[in-house]
Specification:
By secondary structure, this protein is of the alpha/beta class. It is 43% helix and 13% strand.
Length: 376
């Protein structure tokens, strides 16, 4: 099987009963990891579409992953560099449009053209209405947004599983008021008004999904990082998250007919059943302790014949171990996933950390190959 075929089989095995030839491997890279390890110059990587695409493809090939996640839209043409200075292990670059950034060796750029440490404007729920949200339309989406997805599909769409991504309305609601604290306060102060805002935000989420569905993507990821029990209760999840994510999943299923999976970080052991109620095809992260609270065997039992699993490898406490230990851990996960009958994708729970040694990621395909032989 190609990576594309292997991933397709894993994402539908719970319905079709057709297993992949071995457990597919696909991790999401943090941007810091990509920048640190892809060898792309800072302006090209952070500010251009082509540089980011080159990094995605290069690292996917390097570790022989079966799929690529496109987690960001295309970029406009980068400005011209006018000055460059290296210090503190990074580089400071000034551009002809007045922008200036310091690029650390393994982290997001730090803008120097404004005071990035200054707290943003906080707004209360009384100061905002749903009408303050600008509707996204096909006309208002920048022409370069689809370029990232188009280029990756052109490069690897025939051989690899290419996944789109949308951020969810709940995450956007929390940011809408200035800080996460402001967002949670707004929910407590006026939840009915927050639902009106969520409805408008979700229309924009669906519009972002729509243009991606115009391409031959193989799956859609819904990024919902703050919907775990570390932030909200089950009942809040049912009210503030579930109906809006269900609407996005339903849209993608009807528009593109591809699988959807939801990515929620941290502790979700008490709401896996609710996540399934969105109609989703798979669940990503399933962070084990100490990052989360998911007991893998229990999750497998709950999800078998109902959804695929992607993840459960702790990117902080497991993927930083020596390669031989990672192989043993990954093989154990594959063995534990056997009741899923092929509906498992070996992956880091969350994004691969910048401190992860490359040897750790080489070990994942090796674990998949060894497990295929040993579990026959």
């Amino acid at each position: 099987m190609t990576g594309k075929e292997r991933m397709a089989a894993a994402m539908s095995a719970h319905r079709s009963g057709v297993k992949p030839d071995r457990t597919p491997v696909m991790c999401q890279f943090s941007a810091g990891y990509m920048y640190k390890n892809a060898g792309i110059p800072p302006t090209e990587f952070w500010l251009s579409t082509g540089g980011f695409v080159s990094a995605l493809v290069k690292l996917c090939d390097e570790y022989e992953f079966d799929g690529i996640l496109i987690s960001t839209a295309g970029r406009s043409e980068p400005p011209l560099e006018t000055n460059k200075a290296e210090y503190d292990g990074g580089v400071e670059i000034t551009y002809n449009d007045g922008r200036k950034y310091f690029y650390p060796p393994d982290e997001y750029p730090r803008p120097l053209h404004y005071d990035y440490t200054q707290k943003g404007v906080s707004r209360t729920v009384d100061e905002i209405s749903a009408d303050d949200i600008r509707n996204i339309t096909n006309i208002t989406i920048p022409k370069y947004y689809p370029d990232m997805l188009r280029m990756v599909i052109d490069e690897r769409g025939d051989t690899h599983s290419i996944h789109g991504e949308v951020g969810t309305a709940f995450e956007q609601l929390l940011r809408f008021f200035g800080t996460f604290e402001d967002g949670f306060t707004a929910i407590m102060d006026d939840e009915p008004k927050c639902h009106k805002i969520l409805e408008r935000l979700n229309q924009n989420v669906i519009m972002q999904a729509e243009w991606q569905c115009e391409f031959p993507i193989d799956a859609m990821k819904l990024s919902s990082p703050f919907a775990g029990s570390g932030f909200i209760s089950r009942s809040m999840y049912e009210r503030l998250v579930l109906p809006y994510e269900r609407a996005v999943v339903n849209f993608v299923h009807k528009k593109a007919g591809v699988p959807c999976y939801i990515h929620t970080c941290g502790s979700i052991g008490d709401r896996i059943d609710l996540i399934l109620e969105t109609g989703v095809d798979g669940i990503e992260c399933l962070d084990p302790p100490p990052l989360g609270d998911v007991k893998f065997e229990e999750a497998v039992e709950l999800l078998k014949n109902r959804a695929f699993i992607k993840g459960n490898l702790d990117s902080v406490n497991e993927l930083t171990l020596p390669a031989n230990e990672i192989i043993a851990i990954a093989k154990r996960r594959i063995e534990m996933a056997q009741p899923l009958n092929g509906a498992y994708i070996l992956s880091s729970a969350c994004s691969v950390s910048p401190v992860t040694p490359p040897a750790s990621l080489y070990a994942l395909k090796q674990a998949s190959i060894e497990a295929k032989t040993e579990l026959r």
